[in-house]
Amino acid sequence: MTQFLVRKIILVLVFSVLYSCTSDQENLSSTNDTQTLFTLLDAKDTGIDFLNKVKNQKNFNIFKYRNFYNGGGVAIGDINNDGLDDIYLSANQKSDKLYLNLGNLKFKDITEEAGIQMDSTWSSGVTMEDVNNDGFLDIYVSKVGNYKVLKAHNLLYINKGDNSFTESSKVYGIDFSGLSTQASFFDYDNDGDMDMYLMNHSVHTPRSYGSIDRRKIKDSLSGDKLYENRLDQNQIKFVDVTEASGIYSSALGYGLALTTSDVNNDGLIDIYVGNDFHENDYLYINQGNKTFKESGVDYLSHTSRFTMGLDIADINNDQQLDIFSLDMMPFDHEIFLKSGGEDSDKVSQIKENFGFRKQYARNTLQLNQQNKAFTDIALMTNTYATDWSWSALIQDYDNDGHNDIYVTNGIYKRPNDLDYINYLSNVNFSKYNQSQQNDLEESIIKQIPTIKIPNVVFRNKGDLEFEMLTDKAGSNPSYSNGSAYSDLDNDGDLDIVVNTINQTALLLENKSTDTINNNYISFTLKGDSIYKNTTGAKLYIYADNMVKYNELNVTRGFQSSSTHKIHFGIGKTQKIDSVKVQWLDGTFQIIKGVSVNQHHVLTRDNSAQKSIKLTVSDDKKSFRTFPFSHLENNYVDYEKEPLMPEKLSTEGPALVKADFNGDGLEDIFIGGAKHQSSELFLRKGDGTYFNKRDNDFNKDVIYEDVDVTAFDLEKDGDLDLYVMSGGNESVEGDPYLEDRVYINDGNANFRRLIAPLIKTNGGSVSSGDFDGDGFDDLFIGNRSMSRGYGLSPYSFILKNSGKGSFKIVKKVRLGMVTDSQWTDLNNDKKLELVVVGDYMPITVYSYQRDSTFVNDTKKYGLDQTQGMWNSVLVADIDGNGEKDIIAGNAGLNFKFKASKERPVKIYIDDFDDNGQVDPIIFYDFFGNNVPFASKNKLMDQMPSLKKKFLSYSKFSKIASIEDLTGKPEKDILEIKKIVELRSMMYMNVGNKTQEIPLPNQAQMSSIEDVLLDTTDNKQRIIFVGNYLDYTAELGESNGNSGGVISFSNKFDSYHDLPLPRNLNARKIIKISENEFLVVANNDKTYIFTLTND
After folding, report:
1. Cβ atoms < 10 Å from Cβ of 614
2. What is the 3 state secondary structure string of 816-858?
3. What is the mean pLDDT of residues 560-568?
4. Bridge partners of residue 270, in order along the sequence
5. What is the dihedral of CA 9, 12, 16, 17, to 10 degrees?
6. Is 685 buried (19+), middle (13-18) or exposed (0-12) by CB count in 10 A?
7. Geometric angle at alpha carbon 339, from 334 and 341, rounded to 5°
8. Rounded to an integer, what distance in angstroms lies between the CA atom of residue 980 and that of residue 899?
9. Which of 770, 698, 773, 793 is nearest to 740 (CA)?
10. Dist CA 771 CA 510 (whole Å)
11. How far from 651 is each of 332, 354, 789, 887, 1027, CA to CA, in Å?
12. 48 near 483, Cβ under 8 Å?
């Protein structure tokens, strides 16, 4: 029964994304005024007249085979060693084609004379590699066979050295027959010959559903295979070592994307398999003993959900390999609004319960942070949406020294519009006999929409900034699939070949050298008699204080393999100091005297030296745990407030350090979650801590502690505690939300003060003597109103009467408060109150002589800073005597994009007059205003909209709140906005305030807390980040658990903090000269050490 339920759940997920539509066939194109990078050449001029014609058949179509429109691949390589790369194109229902390069971008079809099979069996991927070490490239073609009407096996064409081939797959033992997608040849055991990973794919069967335990069940048609080449043992044979090597070979794998590369830079080639649908991508790390460990959970916080293509290369010139994977999120706002997208939060949780890791239906750009860690920065770089994308190729296409990304797009019959799902869900196939069903399928297929999509170039501008170009990609909108690159005309720039469906293949000539005066250098690597094959070697070039790195790896993109030549764009550099080749057996060669703007052949010789074996550092030893773990209660906010983008029930834990027992040592108080006691840790003289449990805290486990301040309530010389309660489960006024004051007897014995206090979802509490009477006053900043996301609860400024009670001097709906600080902002010896939160500016209140407070935000130049602020710190950062502000925000690695010109807006009103607040968010999506909530969520919240928007197509035309609700902005109860999402520094506040964003590394996640540390007269900004409680539509913000920025009137350096990845950090304090403590939501507490360098 459980197995059936799992299958049904996942089938719904698959079905909802597999089928979609638009009402009519259309093209999606764009306008772009920049100079064209690629030019599409006419097939009449090039001789490449290949056309992958795909036609539906009654016995074989998209209903019979889900990959029916995935298209074919491209392999580029020099099959006759004449210095010109040749082209192989695979077809689905026609013959594959092999084209010989005649020079000057002229090609000859030599398919038949070369011995390539002239049949119509279903080819998918194709790879060129020298599998027998004879110095000539062979060709391996993956086939879909032994499935329904398809009968075929994979083919290996052995190069005879005379432009002809012999099909030898059976002789070599790799004539697999099943559901093959692509093969990659690589040397997995560093013995000098090419082994083979064969990626296969599943189709929807009962074996494809269930928990991750099904990875252990082998499948003869769909399971991936690893074959070891026994050439080193003088055997012309590949041996299946799948099971022994630790490779999964099950029907859970929906393999579409494959590349093999040294991901962790340890000298061993690893494997990345991109899986479609519910199965996670596989990252197999080579263990060096002919086995692999699937390590995605160790390296990647999340992956694409429908991974379709990928490439691995150095994207930011740090000599580390980064990973770019493709999914199907549209960048056109109308297609986006009517397409299936992210899982619901409930479905996402069900998947996690079955063992699947986080996935998002968007591209990922995984930046290599070393130490076994990658950070997805696709949202930050705006590379996350390219529509129905297949092939990604990372190379320097304009030779400016930065690797760009080329992406192919389009699917001939586009199954991802939600109107089509509704239509299809109403078709009852059981009413029809088999013959009628075939006719019905044909009729339905004709209704599946067709949209041509432009291919995309992401031009790398450096510093992790990309420019998205479509027209400059060199072709009209198309149905593009596999692609490969090579300098086909040997003019110093890389051209691209694209396989398409039902149109002639594209040959794109790179025209950048005609308009951009950049230099290049390229290489062919050749082995020696001992180590003949060079695939997997690494090449470094050194020039002008620059190091550039490339790895020889040809299988990349989608169902394709690119040139064996290694290309570097070097910008204006005119001289190369040296070149280093790192061979796969661990030896290296240094070559000098190479000229730019030339192609060089580098041959392995006896000058190769043995290098030191590389090891991968492990950061697990750089921190230790503290004896407190926060245990968040299980509450799902979105079930009662489906339009909210973030949880508001997971704000803790609270943290404060202070000397509570008067011994001169600072102690630590950590607040608990609901049903968890707070803890008090007293510091001892040896630096350790004692957990003092005999306090009233354990009597108050029903409360959730979200913030705390240590203050002296009665001015008796010891510090008491104001503990703020929170949680989004209960409504305002509920006793479970009541704040608490604990009175200290001077010996760290705390007893709760019996007094009525504020009862709401708290955000921030801070203390300070604003009126100078010697008694600590309080600010109580509240976070939210349950069932009313977006509304501002009351916040309070409380004056200490000096008699153990408080008087409210300010009650104001300030915003959704997250942090606050009392500080003398203008050096007038009086305290100002600085407050931050969601949809509010960094706000300043000043105390007046008449015991009132005035909002001076505009006076300090902060009135246009509305953000999703999490933390604020006020200090003199640059030492000039004036106060500065560091404010932690959501960051740039975020789906929302905001600016003063195009803000995120939240409209708050009871739009359908049912007595419930409807918070509706609009944000900028690639230049267009779109609602954040899906049509389904909006209709669930406001059923009256169902009649207004009968189709997703109509819903996709929405551009404003008035379009959606019929109510103009001027009539809406409350409108809030976000204009800034960067974490920021505001220097010299109030005196020509200067805005400075924190470095890019600090924008890769939210910043939850900040402290300023002065060491050796240098300031260090230390922050902790990540927020894992956004809705699935936004995704977890998990790009950076924390960092340290050295500052001396400029940002001098940046380093990650030695903390676990994916830590849901909340607060940080310094506990000794070089030690810091971090508390996290629903996680352990950690201590780490920072040195002074």
Report:
1. 13
2. EEEEEEEECCCCCCCCEEEEEEEEECCEEEEECCCCCEEECCC
3. 98
4. 261
5. 60
6. exposed
7. 120
8. 6
9. 698
10. 70
11. 35, 27, 15, 18, 10
12. no
Residue 12 has pLDDT above 70, yes or no: no
**Could you tell me the two tokens for 391?**
């092939």
pLDDT band at 26 (very low <50, low <70, confident <90, very high): low
Cα–Cα nearest to 730, from 816, 813, 635, 631: 635
Provide the β-strand partners of residue 491.
none
Instruction: Tell me the backbone φ, ψ of residue 146, rounded to 5 degrees.
Output: 55, 35
Question: What would you report as the CA-atom Rg of the chain, rounded to the nearest whole angstrom?
Answer: 31
Considering only CA atoms, which of 198, 192, 269 is closest in space to residue 232?
192
Among 1089, 1065, 1092, residue whose Cα is nearest residue 1079: 1065
User: Burial, 577: exposed, middle or buried (Cβ in 10 Å; 0-12, 13-18, 19+)?
Assistant: middle
Q: Phi first, then psi: give them for residue 683, nearest 5 degrees.
A: -80, 140
Cα dist from 956 to 343, 932, 964, whole Å: 19, 12, 10
Distances (CA, A) of 446 to 345, 433, 439, 1079: 34, 20, 11, 57
Pairing of strands 97-103, 106-109: antiparallel
The number of residues making up the chain comes to 1093
Helix, strand, or coil here: 762? strand
Cis-peptide into 841, omega within 30 deg: no
The C-alpha atoms of residue 1036 and residue 658 are separated, in whole angstroms, by: 33
Q: How far is CA 398 from CA 37, 325, 471, 538, 1015, in A?
A: 8, 22, 15, 22, 44
* Closest C-alpha among 1059, 1053, 1058 to residue 1083: 1059
Between CA 792 and CA 812 the distance in angstroms is 9
Rounded distance between C-alpha atoms, residue 223 and residue 216, angstroms: 10
Here the tokens at position 95 are: 């013959």
Report the SS3 class of residue 1063. coil
| 936 closest CA partner among 478, 339, 483, 486 | 339
- Do the beta carbons of residue 573 and residue 519 sit within 8 Å? yes
Is residue 1064 within 8 Å of residue 1027, measured between CB atoms? yes
- The answer on pLDDT for 20 being more than 60 is no
Residue 356 makes CB contacts below 8 A (sequence gap 6+) with 212, 278, 279, 280
Residue in this structure with the two tokens 């690639």, named with its chain if needed: 926
Structure tokens at 437: 């069903």
What is the 3-state composition of the chain as percent helix, strand, coil, each rounded to the nearest 5?
10, 40, 50
Kindly state the helix (H) or strand (E) to which residue 143 belongs, with its residue range.
strand 138-143
Decide: 94 and 81 in contact? Cβ < 8 Å.
Answer: no
Q: How far apart are CA 1069 and CA 1042, in angstroms?
A: 13
> According to the model, what pLDDT value does residue 1036 have?
97
> Residue 987: pLDDT band by 50, 70, 90 thresholds?
very high
For the stretch 866-875, pLDDT in tens is 999 999 999 9
One-letter amino acid of 636: V
Half-sphere exposure of 482 (CA within 13 A, CB side): 34
The phi, psi pair for 513, rounded to 5°, reads -70, -15
Name residue, tokens 């293949």: 505
Q: Model's pTM, two decimal places? A: 0.95
The label of the residue with tokens 């600072």 reads 666
Element (H, E) at 54: none
- Please name the residues in contact with 475: beta carbons below 8 A apart, sequence gap of 6 or more: 38, 40, 454, 455, 498, 506, 508
At position 567, the amino acid (one-letter code) is H
pLDDT of residue 15: 36
Q: Of all residues in the chain, what percent carry a pLDDT higher than 90?
A: 86
Cβ pair 887, 986 in contact under 8 A? yes
* 241: its two tokens: 């070592």
Can you tell me whether residue 760 is helix, strand or coil? coil
> Which residue, among 619, 615, 617, has the nearest Cα to 267 in the 3D structure?
615
Supply the pLDDT for residue 446.
86
Return the H-helix or E-strand segment holding 181: strand 180-186
